[in-house]
Design goal:
CATH class of the largest domain: Alpha Beta
Number of domains: 2
Shape: globular
Structural class: alpha+beta
Helix content: 25-40%
CATH superfamily of the largest domain: Vaccinia Virus protein VP39
Radius of gyration: 22 Å
Largest sheet: 10 strands, mixed
CATH topology of the largest domain: Rossmann fold
Number of helices: 10
Oligomer: single chain
Length: 429
């Protein structure tokens, strides 16, 4: 990095990424753009080549049993969330999920010398690395602490705002206690699996959404993490069935039976609905999560050549080049069904990143019965007839479980440990 030519090359890569974020309209304000300009990402990923660092992709930095548990998030996602939060100079910020320290450094730039950022992470090695990266970057107004982020960090409270760079499930009482009365909370909120980045504001003591973007992050870990049930299906445990959310259990599901179904001859049904990848994750999956009590997710986290998992979405890990295929569907006692791209579609193709091209949506069923197939298709048709509501149209109100408040109207209620979230799409038929 000391060679001038190398430094010039890195600077050019840095600027090219910023230009890309501006072109994608992820960066829309001078303040956030200036922070990205001032903080070089490669200082927080010293073991990665700059050509990888300055691409608009997440970079996994830590795994547990093959599953990624820490990363440097995709720059587009970071930019959009920072635009949502709109941190002001002089503010006190609590960040849950230190990661590499890069996002905390961006926040530090935005709050300026009169502000302070506290970032907290569960793992001591992650904390140590983040501290080292911030020191190298010359960031002086960020404190990195080790602890359970769900408990916040009372020592530096009260905070003007709180941001989660990990997927959250509920809003903890500690966060609310450490937040100023007019403070705001930004978190990737899980709604029975799918996540949306929600900025909550306080109004007369109650939280309500003021901005929602479709974003997904690795999930908060620790004793207050989202309830999740995971079931390995194949002998090498690459293929996994999982469910998320309060009260979601898989005790009634037998892994050997599901694997036998998965390896049997499937039933493919053309739904006669065309859809884009963008609509899958911003709209349909969220619709299913809010309407289907038996929703399940299926993934193959290490595909050798082909996989029995129906191809809805695929990705290749930047760090280790592992290939993964995943989908979402419905489980019943007599069979299961999943969303799928056309049977002749190939995962891991070069145009995988094109989420705007429509494709025919199929349902693939397994097992002796076809109830799950028709139930999943009925959800798809209902979603289509409702106008394909997007996550941009969501509005969420938050009430304490103890209040036992029952919103009226078309709200869908998602109950969690401390709060219930009343979710509705605005402006839909």
């Amino acid at each position: 990095m000391s060679d001038p030519d190398s430094e010039a090359d890195v600077a050019a890569l840095h600027q090219a990424l910023i230009d890309e974020l501006i072109e994608r309209e992820a960066l829309t304000s001078d303040e956030v753009a200036a922070a990205f300009q001032a903080v070089p990402r490669h200082l927080f990923l010293p073991d990665e080549p700059p050509t990888a660092v300055y691409t608009d992709r997440p970079i996994v930095t830590k795994r547990d049993n093959g599953r990624a548990i820490s990363s440097s998030s995709q720059p587009t996602m970071m930019a959009i969330m920072l635009e949502q939060l709109a941190v002001q100079p002089g503010e006190q910020v609590l960040e849950v999920g230190a990661g590499t320290g890069y996002n905390a450094a961006l926040l530090g730039q935005m709050v300026g010398e009169n502000g302070r950022v506290t970032t907290i992470d569960l793992d001591a090695d992650t904390v140590a690395a983040a501290r080292s990266h911030l020191q190298v970057a010359g960031t002086e107004n960020v404190q990195v602490v080790c602890g359970d982020g769900a408990a916040g960090f009372a020592e530096n409270a009260p905070y003007d705002c709180l941001i989660l760079t990990v997927g959250g499930w509920d809003i903890t009482p500690d966060w609310l206690e450490q937040l100023k009365p007019d403070g705001r909370i930004l978190l990737p909120l899980s709604l029975n699996g799918p996540q949306v980045s929600v900025l909550f504001a306080r109004d007369n003591g109650r939280l309500h959404s003021t901005s929602i973007q479709p974003r997904g992050f690795m999930r908060l870990r620790g004793p207050n993490a989202e309830p999740e049930s995971t079931m390995p299906l194949d002998p090498v445990e690459n293929i996994q069935l999982f469910r998320m959310g309060n009260g979601y259990s898989m005790e009634h599901i037998r892994a050997n039976e599901v694997y036998t179904w998965l390896m049997s001859e499937p039933l493919d049904l053309d739904t006669a609905v065309s859809i884009t990848g963008r609509e899958i994750w911003r709209s349909l999956t969220l619709w299913l999560a809010l309407h289907e009590p038996d929703l399940i997710f299926l993934e193959d986290i290490d595909v050798p050549k082909t996989s029995p998992v129906p191809y809805l979405y695929s990705m290749v890990s930047v760090a280790d080049k592992k290939k993964a295929v995943s989908t979402v569907g419905v489980y019943t006692s007599e069979g299961m069904a999943f969303l799928m791209q056309p049977p002749n579609a190939s995962p891991f193709s070069q145009d995988e990143d094109d989420r705007t091209a429509p494709f025919p949506l199929f349902v693939r069923g397994f097992g002796p019965g076809d109830t799950a197939v028709h139930r999943l298709r009925a959800h798809i048709l209902a979603w289509d007839q409702a106008g394909r509501p997007d996550s941009d149209n969501l509005y969420i109100q938050v009430d304490s479980i103890a209040n036992n408040h029952h919103p009226v109207g078309s709200s869908l209620i998602v109950k969690k440990k401390w709060h219930q979230f009343a979710v509705q799409w605005q402006g839909t038929p």
